[in-house]
Amino acid sequence: MQYTFSILTLFLANASAEFLLPTPPGRYNVTFTTGSLVDYTRNDTNAATPVPRAVMLSVFQPATCASTVSVPYMPNKTAEYQGPFLQALFNISADLTPIFTEARLPVCPNDSGSGGCSPVNDYPILLFSPGYIIPRLYYSVIASAIASEGFVVITIDHPGDANIITYPDGHTVYGNGPISPTPEEYTQLVYPRVADASFIIEQLSNATAIAEVLPRRGPIPFQTDHVAMLGHSLGGVTAVIAASQDPRICAAINWDGTFYGTLPPTGLSQPVLYMSEVNVTDPAWLAAWPQMKGPKLWVDVANTSHQSFSDVLTLFEAAGQDTAPLADLLGTIASAEIVRILVAYTAAWMNGAFAGKVGGPLLGGQEPDRFPEVSKVMKGNF
Ligand SMILES: *[C@@H]1O[C@H](CO)[C@@H](O)[C@H](O)[C@H]1NC(C)=O
Ligand SMILES: *[C@@H]1O[C@H](CO)[C@@H](O)[C@H](O)[C@H]1NC(C)=O
Ligand SMILES: *[C@@H]1O[C@H](CO)[C@@H](O)[C@H](O)[C@H]1NC(C)=O
Ligand SMILES: *[C@@H]1O[C@H](CO)[C@@H](O)[C@H](O)[C@H]1NC(C)=O
Ligand SMILES: *[C@@H]1O[C@H](CO)[C@@H](O)[C@H](O)[C@H]1NC(C)=O
Ligand SMILES: *[C@@H]1O[C@H](CO)[C@@H](O)[C@H](O)[C@H]1NC(C)=O
Ligand SMILES: *[C@@H]1O[C@H](CO)[C@@H](O)[C@H](O)[C@H]1NC(C)=O
Ligand SMILES: *[C@@H]1O[C@H](CO)[C@@H](O)[C@H](O)[C@H]1NC(C)=O
């Protein structure tokens, strides 16, 4: 991952105009709810005074609603932090803040009275873990696109790791990890994330907790026999390691995450999909490959970069920005195309895993014309 590049000319022409992100492409629209779950068995080691660890979540549920409303992509406090943060991280001279403050997500209204909107309950649940430092909110477009195919998608902020988390009461927790972690530091960062995943799965059965996060659903626990996990970068690695430790996780998908941490000597049996940039021959991933004993597939996606596996391309394009000057950072693939690819492979992988039969024409490579950017690197056990 190479983040340094020279000064760029970005024209944020409509800097103060709201812009709407794409409507989810699938057969449902989605509801969007945010809330936190508190783990009283673990203190947050990042906090100055120990407090129970509070993971912040966004929940995207498939719903039938004929009309959507637009809601802020991020709370103001989070959005205003992102511009200066990324400008410093990537050495960009333009003011990026409006991209985050002005973006609007089209979602079903919360009020069940309007538009006959009702979530369709009890679809399989997909936990989503973001890249290191990156707030969960950078994946809301992709998460809603996946949810629109019939999954409950829950994106997670890991405290101390996400650069900023704004909680429902308005208080914030800032990330305090290193800007460029060493491999050892990345490895240490994985395990609190893995514990967060198991904690969330446990709380899905907690009627009180669910009623607090999803007031409209009320005290109805989720069934946890259809849960899987995916993520981007360190979040993708988190998904794989979490699956190896928690048998309730039925499958894992890693979007472009170098491997950190270790798998148990017996390996893991759940299906694992790895989607990467082109020509990434990550030795750590190759070393872990034989430990994946279930169905496994590694594909790469042409014209992507590490950042293409997030909402960032969509945000720039929806804001009317030319992404060409940022090609090194963002990739050159069209935002709608990378979303289609990520949604199609994720849905096919997860549906196959939940049905106990990973396969089908897309994953088997029998539809080469559907996504010409995608090529098989390695495949096993299906
Ligand atoms: C940031 O960009 C400027 C302008 O191109 C350049 O002079 C400077 O060296 C860059 N800084 C870093 C840390 O790359
Ligand atoms: C619904 O509630 C969530 C908080 O759970 C909020 O973030 C979102 O903006 C609300 N949506 C609408 C359409 O008001
Ligand atoms: C968290 O910290 C508080 C205050 O120091 C302490 O009383 C409590 O036992 C700690 N809880 C856990 C689970 O470590
Ligand atoms: C989703 O909402 C849009 C309006 O924003 C509407 O045009 C579309 O038909 C809805 N899709 C579904 C599947 O209900
Ligand atoms: C966020 O900031 C905008 C622009 O300053 C303001 O109009 C809006 O009311 C703020 N939203 C909230 C929830 O405070
Ligand atoms: C269930 O959730 C409630 C509300 O968040 C919490 O107070 C309680 O400790 C949870 N119960 C268990 C067993 O985790
Ligand atoms: C990837 O590697 C192959 C074989 O070395 C090479 O032909 C191809 O141009 C490379 N593609 C990219 C995008 O670097
Ligand atoms: C990658 O982008 C280039 C330039 O836009 C294009 O010519 C090429 O067909 C793309 N590759 C794939 C596999 O789509």
TrEMBL record:
Pfam families the UniProt entry points to: PAF-AH_p_II (PF03403)
EC number in record: 3.1.1.47
Annotated GO MF terms: 1-alkyl-2-acetylglycerophosphocholine esterase activity
Annotated InterPro entries: AB_hydrolase_fold
Alphabetized UniProt keyword annotations: Hydrolase, Lipid degradation, Lipid metabolism, Signal
GO biological process: lipid catabolic process
Signal peptide bounds: 1-17
This protein's name: 1-alkyl-2-acetylglycerophosphocholine esterase
